[in-house]
Amino acid sequence: MKKVKLILLFVLIPLFSFAQLEDTKLVITDGLDNASLKAVMENNVSLFLKACNVAVMEGEKPDIEEGLTKDAEEVLKEMWKMSPMSCPVSTVEEVCLQTSEGYQVRNIPVTMMAAAEGEQDQELVLHFTSSGLIDNISIALEEHRYKDIIAEHESVEDLYRRQVIIDFVENYRTAYNRKDLSYIESVFSDNALILTGKVIREKPKSDYAMRALSREKIVYQKRTKKEYISNLKKVFKSNKYINVLFDEVEVIQHPKLTDIYGVTLKQEWNSDRYRDVGFIFLMIDFQDEMHPLIQVRTWQPEKLDGKVLAREEVFNLGDFDIVRSLVND
Fold it and tell me: What is the pTM assigned to this prediction?
């Protein structure tokens, strides 16, 4: 009889755990005084998380009848194609942030089921309309990185743009993960400068050269926006799953052209057929505040001759002469 009880115990524990996850809920702890709106947002997020958990348990797609806009439904659909996700906790307690378009709740923990081991634990950012509907879903930067970027603001305008840049970078990353080619195309200027570095090994001319000099160097290939998007389309088509991770994000405002920002970050690219780690530099133009554009994108390998590139070797705003008439689209 004891053996039977023991077996039943092991069977019931996972069932109990799944039942707990199914009832995942959000509690907004601060940042929103409107009690009725707060209740609507909490309910919509709770329904969203519950639907994701049930879908993972049943091997189906999320069935959500309310709480999301059509845009958010489409984003979720595309993200789900890349990887189903569940929320591993029963209660999420977070503050609500007000944005220019509505509200935002960050740091929603999720498990990306299709991600490689060690990369499954990620966090979402949920964007809301002024009425409390979930309007967008993106993968969050790490919380400490977010706080560092915001803390470095020098004016109210700079603070606003840093918030926009964080949203921009998070949506940019999520667009790669869900293979959203149209979004990526929309954030690049038609005249964007795109440089991609490649490490090549040089054959030394003598044994002394082999011992004394670096055998590796980075050569850069310049691409147009059209070429870059065309190549990316092929990459998306040939890979079932793509997981792009951003880290070490730094944001710098141009000292003279204050509507120009430089964003440097380390990117880890993981896909079915390829993996690399490198440094990305983005020059973002805020001349159109409602539609900032990438004017420059560069990629450099993380290491050369086995050593991580020093920060001064990574592209930054100082490496480009900006002529305003050329920046304009």
Answer: 0.81
